[in-house]
Amino acid sequence: MRALAKSSTLYVGNLAFSTRASHLRAHFSTLGPVAAVHVGLDRFRKTPCGFAFVEYESRAHAHQAVAYLTGTKLDGRVIRAELDAGFKPGRQYGRGVSG
């Protein structure tokens, strides 16, 4: 819980498999500087699997993104964004069997 209270990272879900990091950066940078984008990958095929982590430079911009970008369309899909405790290597593979 402590990490979530200080985090400026978002979990972004319901992405199209065709969505790339550059699409996410362009969409989310409308609200502030994006420090990093990590696209979720299928553990075995290493292809995008519908989620990502977007790290902002400030927590305030992350809060704005949750408020204003959840429910918007990106690459034809209505996305959802929520605060996340932070990206760590390995999390890009998700929790499922293949990602």
Secondary-structure map with pairings?
Blueprint: H1 2-6, E1 9-13, H2 21-28, E2 34-41, E3 48-56, H3 59-69, E4 73-74, E5 77-78, E6 80-84
Antiparallel strand pairs: 1-3, 1-6, 2-3, 4-5
Number of helices, where a helix is a run of at least 4 consecutive DSSP H or I residues: 3
| Rg for CA atoms | 13 Å
Based on DSSP secondary structure assignment, what is the total number of beta strands? 6
Estimate what percentage of residues fall within beta strands.
Answer: 25-35%
Question: How many strands, what sense, and barrel or not for the largest sheet?
Answer: 4 strands, antiparallel
User: Rough shape?
Assistant: globular
Query: Secondary-structure element sequence?
Result: HEHEEHEEE
Mean of all residue-level pLDDT scores: 89
Are there runs of 5+ residues with pLDDT below 50, and where?
none
Proportion of helical residues: 10-25%
Task: Report the span from N to C terminus.
Answer: 24 Å
Structural class: alpha+beta
Strand ordering within the main sheet: 2-3-1-6
